[in-house]
């Protein structure tokens, strides 16, 4: 076993955020990288439990910008990056009502100017596409025909495969227990297996990001994990759903989509929780059924095939948290991706690499996502 104890970069967490950063750092020639993952395999929590779709629509401007940038990579990754396509263009249908519908229509010109393929559907056109919907529940819909399902396993392991080829080390089942500091600067970490020095420590610990920073003392950065629940069930007998897009009702908090031979659905719950190995709450599962009954009664399942939950971590303003800590130098945040971590990973990983190596990026206004905004 390699006994090396000093690295240029230490990344805490090997979900999609940590893996993407390792890839983009390696692409810039940084080979002295250690990724520490407390679980027995990468992507165990949020990354492995996500619906994993590209949706080039978001009411948070900075997240929308990152989705558009991430989508470019997913559609046209570098030659030999992945062994199979990363994106299945199955489509995304977003229904809205009232003020949200007005806001969505105002966003369309800028979305198209950014290169997104967007169609506006009226009630009749939407129902003709998804016949289980009722016009009473929405005023119109946004269709993103070029968006759809991401092969998250292929994306995660492609990031890691290329990073490891360039020298990145991944150590699983190794938990960070202390952050080493000296004169206001982060100097490394102490784990369940040893002590490591590093010029940069990157906090890509997902729902545990706040806990990790807390090992070094108080921080103005605020993050809260939230639980998201998903169920799967058989499609109604005689109903063909395999070619449906993912359907989201933003005004009534429900989405459903084809899943294997049936359907998956979520009430889009965001209940604040402590970082944990998330499990579905039975009350939320029942709420999912009730919401289906209210909005799409023809889809109400006789039984549930499977249910699970994952964690989505947000800052109070919903924007991501990417940049050097405002108090502890050498400690870098790559956190707060909410539910957009997979689809934005290529953009956020590149931005983080540029901020670490160059101190700036041209891809986004770094102040909008900087942790320094919490110190103002």
Automatic annotation (TrEMBL):
Entry keyword annotation includes Phosphoprotein = no
> Known SUPFAM superfamilies for this protein?
FAD/NAD(P)-binding domain
Q: What positions does the domain FAD dependent oxidoreductase occupy?
A: 10-355
* Any one GO cellular component localisation term in the record: cytoplasm
Residue stretches spanning the membrane: 7-26
Q: Which UniProt keywords apply?
A: Membrane, Oxidoreductase, Transmembrane, Transmembrane helix
Give any Pfam family that matches.
Answer: DAO
Q: Name one GO molecular function term.
A: oxidoreductase activity
Give the matching PANTHER family. Answer: FAD-DEPENDENT OXIDOREDUCTASE DOMAIN-CONTAINING PROTEIN 1, SARCOSINE DEHYDROGENASE-RELATED
Q: What is the protein's name according to its record? A: FAD-binding oxidoreductase
